[in-house]
């Protein structure tokens, strides 16, 4: 086990405890109980060492190299050396070497699939996010993720969004109150729902989902300073922006695409919320090439 992960990852808020939890869970799926890699143990001598290159097989954006490093550290008992060759969030092209790992050959092969699963997934999220960030460059708006994440991988996927130029919305149901249509219905309206949340959790940020200009005005008058503008056309959204007049941050959400992103950004909203960053991103193809010493 390593004592720390690279500082670049810590700066982005990816803490060691979360990395360890994911890595140990993922390795347990592969190694069973008792943990073992029967093929590597049978075919590779315990003293044999090797060098492995993590190589991009497609163009994209890299995220998750510190996580991959932890996988190799665990399987090698801390003896593997992980030489990261590109920074997190870097654009890479097919054939680029992302990292070079040296250590016991058994440990390298045992770690291979788990490390690549996590690295490919996180890099896929980062690659998708960067496309949105590029489209929105030069506008006021930034791309925002959602809770539509892979169970167990939320912290890692949201980290990948951040390093690629996106913004995190909320981590879960505990850190931000989001008043949606069903909450409004159950509580008796926007104002009532907002008041109840404020009374129960005075220090928690409150966001309100709205679908019309009238709802947006009601939410702002109730005290909301962040509105989710759900499934609005650019024309309707522009009207909301005008009426709200800077009294609240505004997020466009629902059926957004890269093709329509600039039209929505032009309305003056602060964020474009895209669940697809985490629920629909394909992986970035990355492979491990081994050399035996």
Q: Can you offer a commentary on this structure?
A:
It contains twelve helices and twelve strands. It has two domains: about 5-125 and about 280-290, Quinolinate phosphoribosyl transferase, N-terminal domain (Aldehyde Oxidoreductase, domain 3), CATH 3.90.1170.20; about 135-280, TIM Barrel, CATH 3.20.20.70. With about 290 residues, it is an alpha/beta fold. Strand 8 (about 205-210), helix 9 and strand 9 (about 225-230) form a beta-alpha-beta unit. It is elongated. The model is unreliable at about 1-10 (pLDDT under 50). Helix content is about 45%, strand content about 20%. The strands form three sheets. It has a six-stranded parallel beta sheet with strand order 6-11-10-9-8-7. A four-stranded antiparallel beta sheet has the order 3-5-1-12, with helices on one face. A two-stranded antiparallel ribbon has the order 2-4.
Mean pLDDT: 94
Strand percent estimate: 15-25%
Radius of gyration: 23 Å
If classified by CATH, what would the architecture of the largest domain be?
Alpha-Beta Barrel
- Tally the helices: 12
Number of strand elements: 12
Q: Kindly, what is the distance between the CA atoms of the first and last residues, rounded to a whole number of angstroms? A: 24 Å
SSE string, helices as H and strands as E:
HHHEEHEEEHEHEHHEHEHEHEHE
CATH topology heading of the largest domain: TIM Barrel
CATH superfamily of the largest domain: Aldolase class I
The number of distinct structural domains comes to: 2
